Amino acid sequence: MPIDKSTCLKFYKRPDIQLAIVEHARDKEVGVRYTETFGKRPDVLSYPRDIIELALRNATSFHASEERWQNPLALSSTSSKKDLDALRSGWDLVLDIDCAVMEYSRICADLIVKFLRYCEVKDVSVKYSGNKGFHIGVPFEAFPQKVGNVLTKDLFPEAPRKMALYIKENIKEELGRQILTFEKNISNIKEKVRQEDIIRYETIQGISVPKLDVEKFLEIDTILLASRHLYRMPYSLHEKSGLVSLPIDPDRVLEFEKSMAAPEKILTPMFVFLERNILNESARRLLVQAMDYEIKVPPEDVPKRQAEEMVIQSPITEDFFPPCMKLILQGLDDGKKRAVFCMANFLGKVGWSKTEIEEFLRKWNAEKNREPLREVYIKGQLAHFTAGERLPPNCNNEAYYKGIGVCRPDSFCSRIKNPANYTILKWRRHREEKSDEEEKKKRRRQKKEEEMREEEKKEETTRAASSPENLISLPVSEE
Fold this sequence. Notes:
Layout: H1 5-12, H2 15-24, E1 30-34, E2 37-38, H3 49-56, E3 61-65, E4 67-69, H4 81-87, E5 88-91, E6 93-99, H5 102-118, E7 125-128, E8 134-138, E9 146-147, E10 150-151, H6 158-183, H7 186-193, E11 199-204, E12 207-212, E13 218-222, E14 230-232, E15 247-248, H8 284-292, H9 302-311, H10 323-328, H11 336-349, H12 354-368, H13 375-382, H14 419-465
Antiparallel strand pairs: 1-2, 1-3, 3-14, 4-5, 6-8, 6-13, 7-8, 7-15, 9-10, 11-12
């Protein structure tokens, strides 16, 4: 159940909880959440007493960056990539397991831990997200300082993304098998995830074999899609569930139950998420193999994927945008920077070019926002942006659409996980309906033309029959 101020104060006044949160925040940028909105950024947590003081000002949860900084307070919304690289002292690998069904997330977390152990990573930590997912962490200290001639700290966000992809590709077959074993049949899974299309087919020795497509309803990704994104810190409360984002034993994930994360049940912190006190670079093999890894696309899948990429040949118009994007376009008082990130990636995925996106965002910022962002901010955000490279944040990412107050779903929203999917599905449906209507018009036109031809034939036959040369002379009787 949602948390109230008394629950927050009772929990955050505990010295052991304050210390655990502040220790985790060291060298990280911090975001403080007040129920639905975030406080100023950049921010830091320096002393345990900061926690209770913020709770007294209605803070509900604390969030930290995956990146680690020499001086988090030197960060700026106008910082260039070069500036960020200079300030960044490292980054932690934080994998986010996101699924509407908590039992599936738990199975996935256990498999990731086992795969990391297989890759010889000794320094693995796990925490319950506080709602329906888990976070898997590997500290920066477990990675080598360099890969080739490149400093590992500068391999951001490329390296975390590649490791997430490498891990996902290596466990997805077993993940599908274990979820299917857990549920006994496909229909149970469909009912829980509320999605029909969850089967894919693979050709094995000439035979088409059905497989559970877990990517349709379960995501494994890095928390950060771009620099300075945040994740919920360990021992922070979750606004929606009222539970604690609790670090747990990585080797006993399958034993975890939500009830264990109730605030009143939390004893002195037993596990550390992203333990810094480690012996060696146990994640070297994982990083090197992930950087060299490339997904092998089956030949029969290539034409289909190429066709899908070629479908959107011109920008999809605002008529097909989801409610959240339409609300953003009306202008915002708070959350404009997050809105720029969401909109840029959204527009890129629905066929807009980088130039079109930049012009659109500048016009929106100048004409719709009562207090516009500085134009240099939008320019900076798009400096290294590639249109269509990545999706906008998913609908259930509470830091975005709900966080800025634009999540007002319509009846179609329950069918999708991402705003871009909403628009593409609506657009495709419109095209199909338009195509069907055009086909119907064509058939009606053809039918009418055929009827006209038949009528003309009848008229021609009638005219021919009544012509003088075709008239039959009747015999005249003689008297």
